[in-house]
Amino acid sequence: MKSVSTFVRLVPILVLLTRGLSLVAQEPLKTPRLVEQDGRHALLVDGTPFLVLGAQIGNSSAWPLLLEQKVWPALEAMHVNTAEAPVYWEQIEPQPGNFDWTNVDALLSGAREHRLHLILLWFGTWKNGNDHYVPQWVKTHPEQYPRMKNSAGAPIDDLSANAPANMEADRKAFAALMHHLAEEDSTDHTILMMQVENESGGIGAARDYSTDSNREFGEQVPAELVKALGKRPGTWSEVFPGVADESFQAWHQARYVNAVAEAGKREFNIPFYCNVWLAYPPAALPERHIAAPGIGYPSGGPNQFMLPIWKFAAPSIDLIGPDLYSSDPSFYLGILDTYARPDNPLWIPETGQGNEYAPYFFAAVGRGAIGFSPFGIDWVGRLPDGVVPRVHAANYALAGSMDRTLAKLNFAGKIKTMIEAAGGADQQVIFYPNSTPLTARNSFGASSPPADDALIDISTLANAIVSPGEAGNVATRTADQSGAWVAEVRFGFPQRDGEAAPGSSDKSGRMLIAQMNPNEYLVTGIGGAVFFHRPGYLPGIRMQILSAEEGYFTPSRASGAPEEWHRIRILNGDETDRGIRFPDPHAVPARSSSTLPAIGDTGGGDTEGPPPFQDRPVAVRILLDRF
């Protein structure tokens, strides 16, 4: 299937924002695609913004028998809406030109049966900086498929990015895969995105030291790259002093991966991305003692230092997502800010499954992320049968019933989040009234659309080089303090009048606040209490809460339509005067469609009607007034 560029102008989405209707009513369903407006991004699925609540399975878990017995049940218990799963080059093409789609078809059929979307990971030329997933007929013929060489001239465990034969073999295999997926999924839209390679780059050398590569390294840097980066012409050593080897490798790596992606997009044009093994400083990840390319991390990948080269050299890659395995707040949040660029939607394709990583889901959403995905969620040995990471599962249980609503609010720039680990036990954010309201009271349709001249086709930004400090600052507006509201979050319990917020023992508190209208807010979170007040006033002074509805969302019966809000009760008295409280649950409920019990439960199975009140992940809709 061929289509226009993955990034499109957003004129059709105005229908969505204006009336709260699915685009399916206006035009045939489209393949998933990425859109951009005012520096914010959305992944559109069936025409509406979609928030990926993902989990990546283990490297060797994408086999039919394991999927049914050990993978799908774990993902259901995790409350995900999307599974990340690998496709192995060595499995699909055991002989040149002969393809076996057994595993791929098992992924598609299983995901549909379990009502999940898929993001497929192409384990092709590179997997974690090595060539371990290339077929045997490639591995055993190095004279035809050359390996990368180190500075001593010895071959290493990587295919050379400078060898056309390697690229052509990968291109053909990936194009065949995408052709098959187009035949199988062009109408169902089970597959949301494709990852091209996995943490590409070289482990064992800073660059390829083959004869041809050495000769090219001594030549002038390509003029188009020099111009794009605003550099002066010269050799690689002159243009990139101190990082010449890695920059040279990044240029060739990005062009290789782009060629593979380009071939795939001609067959099936859905969003393509690359993940990246970051350059971790020892302070952020102490077990990596040598922060050097080709030793501490794969050289040439799209890490935080090589990102500008990749954004220019690989235009067929729609976004680059960082794999984050350091829970250090300054490093984690700094990387989120680096990759949240006007020309790069923020997406976390891998992160740690430990409890300390779970609050960063909220941090990512607060920076406009289209999704988040902990790694290693299956019962094939990484986790005991029946167990999933509790804190991550609690996040997804909370967000899962309103993922479409959150995605729409985020695309409109209406969400702010706070995590205790990054800012302490008492934090504040301010909301200004001078932006276009997203909704009318009790409706998720916009009262008026943004002007057409505010829309940006992200394809015009594909080759822009944006510094990290500029990321997310495309749509800064003048603040009107007169109608502003401050949302204060106090983490930890118990909270007592006149005392500072106690904080939680593990600093796991996290909160999400979304502006529905200048005076209306949607709040949800774990481990804290929320107070609203006017700037310069204490809570309760010259303001009042007109309504605080505690409730939950359920998916709409209409495809692509907004979730439906169900009120449980109206909060008042102690439940509003002392903050709107969101305790940390000790357990999370299983998906309503699953026969698996919640963690800590002894029973399971479907039930008629809504789950018990205490098991329902809730949010609160608040209407404020000033006097």
From TrEMBL:
Q: Where is the Glycoside hydrolase family 42 N-terminal domain?
A: 74-257
GO molecular function term, any single one: beta-galactosidase activity
Q: Which Pfam families match?
A: DUF5597, Glyco_hydro_42
Cross-referenced Gene3D superfamilies, in alphabetical order?
A: Glycosidases (3.20.20.80), putative beta-Galactosidase from caulobacter crescentus (2.60.220.20)
Cite the DUF5597 domain residue spans from the record: 393-582
Keyword field contains Nucleus: no
Q: Name one GO biological process term.
A: carbohydrate metabolic process
Region span, Disordered: 583-615
Q: Does the keyword rRNA-binding apply?
A: no
One annotated Gene Ontology cellular component of this protein? beta-galactosidase complex
SUPFAM superfamilies for this protein: (Trans)glycosidases (SSF51445)
Q: Any idea which UniProt keywords this protein has?
A: Glycosidase, Hydrolase, Plasmid
Can you name this protein?
A: Beta-galactosidase
Q: What is the lineage of its organism?
A: Bacteria, Pseudomonadati, Acidobacteriota, Terriglobia, Terriglobales
